[in-house]
Amino acid sequence: MANTLGTRIGELRRKKGITQDQLAEFSGVSPQAVSKWENDMSCPDITLLPMTQLPQISGNQALKDIDFKAILLMAESGVIGKIVEVKSANGDNVEVVIE
């Protein structure tokens, strides 16, 4: 099975033990939207991410200097492409891409 964004969303949701309905409620979207994400029919809108989630992401040392608010503003203004690529201390590559 391909490791697409949709399959990762589904895997992570199941790993957390939550339903599509619960993820939809948390994300402020319909359960049908979550289903479309997981089936690679559409992608989540990054501008829907609650700003309260960003400190958890930026708490990662590899991401500490990234201005996530600026990335959201770029997404809203129509910028596309790879925005950020960093390597974490444990060797993981982290990319922020807007399509």
SS field, number of helical segments: 5
User: Segments where pLDDT lies below 50 for 5+ residues?
Assistant: 52-56
Number of strands: 2
Proportion in β-strands:
5-15%
* Spatial order of strands in the largest sheet: 1-2
Number of domains: 2
The quaternary state of the protein chains shown equals: single chain
How much is the average pLDDT? 78
What letter string, H or E per element, gives the SSE order?
HHHHHEE
What class do helices, strands and sheet pairing give?
A: alpha+beta
What is the C-alpha radius of gyration, as a whole number of Å?
Answer: 14 Å
Major sheet characteristics: 2 strands, antiparallel
**Helical percentage:** 40-55%
Approximate shape: globular
Terminal CA distance reads: 22 Å
Task: Report on the architecture of this protein.
The structure is a single chain. This protein folds into two domains: 1-43, 434 Repressor (Amino-terminal Domain) (Orthogonal Bundle); 45-99, no CATH class. It contains five helices and two strands, in the order αααααββ. The protein is 43% helix and 13% strand. It has helices spanning 5-16, 20-27, 31-38, 54-58, 68-77; strands at residues 81-87, 93-98. The protein is globular, with a radius of gyration of 14 Å. It is α+β, with helices and mostly antiparallel strands. The longest helix is centred in the first third of the chain and has 12 residues, at 5-16. The model is unreliable at 52-56 (pLDDT under 50). Helix 2 packs across helix 3 (31-38). A hairpin with a 5-residue loop joins strand 1 (81-87) and strand 2 (93-98). The two termini are 22 Å apart.
